[in-house]
UniProtKB/TrEMBL annotation:
It comes from Notoacmeibacter marinus. It comes from the Bacteria. This is 3-deoxy-manno-octulosonate cytidylyltransferase.
Amino acid sequence: MTYPLLARERRLLDLLASYDRIVLVANSEKTDLDALLSTYSADQTLFVFFGKVQKILTEPFARPAMLIHRLGRQGAINHGRRSVETALALFDKTALKGQVGLQAGKDHRSTNSAANDGDFSAELPFLMNCDPVLNGWYTQGVAPTTGFAAALWLSRHLPEKSIILAGFTGQRSLNLKMLSVHDWTIEQTVLRLEYRMGTISRFEDSGQMAERASIENIAERYPELPPATVAAVYADVLRGQFQATDKVVAHLSRDRWYQRIYNKLASRLGLRRRR
């Protein structure tokens, strides 16, 4: 089932039409801004950022850019006005071409008809309604990440453009939180399929940054085995690792719960709190 584009979506597509490539920049420690700026020309590239860009920007960004905000209930921006003001201060006034409200998943009310097009803040002249792209196959009960939803929306509506993702690793690190409200596994699976089909590109796969998947190297080592067999064994090993990790995480979560209870009691009884 298809839905007509809302007026703010059509305005966004008109703006994006003037660029040859669109680079989506994740708020990740893996994002290499210097490499991005040196790789892509200034005049035909639009850099798209998300929400709390202070995680990766330390000074005003001077290249053509766009800022996407996740919309919550009633069309409000999820991360609050103060955070938005902090983010806007990190863009050169002439560089920021617009702000986009993105809706996807269970965090907002449905806006599948043009009648709802006026429900969103006038401060956001552009809109991405990602539900028609995601409904029916994304995992129920969780919401897609903003970057993932934006990437699929762009690839669907601008198939002639070069859509490039930077820093979209989907991997946990010491400084990167991976919230359980998203299905990271299905998102990385879909993105890698999109990479293989050529509908979306990954910056880390270009030039010297390219890195082959380890499973491809294994498949070459055992040419006598069908690729499906290698993939099945690989998936089985990953499943075992995930199960073991889940047990450790559950154990740590239980320990933290006990610690919180102890500290509450200690505060009431005047005992020393645990750290």
